[in-house]
Amino acid sequence: MKSVFILLFLLDAAMHYAHPGVGIVMDSKGNVYYTDLSRVWKIDTRGKKSVVVQGVHTHELYMDQQDNLFGEHLWYNGEQVDTWGHFIWKYSAEGKIEKIIPDMEGFRSEYSFVRDHHGNMYWANREEKCQHVIRSDKNNEQVKLGDQCLNDIRWMTSSPSGTIYLVDLYDVKKVDGRGHVETLATQLQEQSLFQFFVNDPHHLMGITTDKQENVYVAVYGGRKVKKITPGGKVFSVAETGINWSPTGVLSAPNGDLWILECSPTNAVRVECITSSGRRIIY
């Protein structure tokens, strides 16, 4: 009877499943910020949690070199009109919140939270079957990157110099500044019994790199974080608890690994695996 109840609970949760967020970033002082799709939280260097931006539905976050935090608010206007809207916000290092792009119809286009230290933005061009990455500089001059076709670009991240690492459905690929595409690892997807509701676009989610250009990807369907070395070796570096699965990942300068985790009921928490192997849940 107990197993039947658990199955019914998970089926109900799956019916109410929402596309989880991937946004987890760190400022220069070591404070961590993450989204739960309703607000943005801060974990300070003492481990204290607080809400810094209230009432925003943002999947991604970006922290610039001046410790300014950026995100969006995305909303649905209801089945009757079946339209979406969004605005872009900034939470300054001084704690001031402001809209930097006002309310607009539809989804974001030609604005991205994937950026390098030169001020370039990167986003996916999915309009054609042969997909590419678009780089836009401060003058809005755009360049198409990719000397081969990408199939299904999902989440991506940029190194400070502008090398792009991205999820191409089940694979992780690298796109350098000249547009050369290199496949680092393939078929990284897994399907845990307790993640049966995860569908194809969400098997692999948040992605980040460390100083050595190792890549970390949240395998949402398999409750794991996988690490890909520059040479293409793949191994799991973390596995989450049975009721949780990783959606976002952050590699800190000191070697700590921060994991944004989501439950089947869309609860959100953060786990830190320190460089010494200690696991801390927030």
Summary of the model, kept short:
The protein is mostly beta strands and 282 residues long. Helix content is 5%, strand content 46%.
Walk me through this protein's architecture:
The protein is mostly beta strands. The chain has a domain at 19-113. It contains 1 helix and 23 strands. It has a 4-stranded antiparallel sheet, with no helix packed on it. Strands 5-6-7-8 form a 4-stranded antiparallel sheet, with no helix packed on it. A hairpin with a 5-residue loop joins strand 7 (84-91) and strand 8 (97-105). The longest helix has 14 residues, at 2-15. The protein is globular and about 45 Å long.
Q: From the alpha-carbon coordinates, what is the Rg to the nearest angstrom?
A: 18 Å
Order of helices and strands: HEEEEEEEEEEEEEEEEEEEEEEE
Strand content: over 45%
- Give the mean pLDDT: 91
- In one word, what is the shape? globular
Largest sheet: 4 strands, antiparallel
The helix content, as a percent range, equals under 10%
Number of helices: 1
Number of strands: 23
Which sequence of strands runs across the widest sheet? Answer: 1-2-3-4
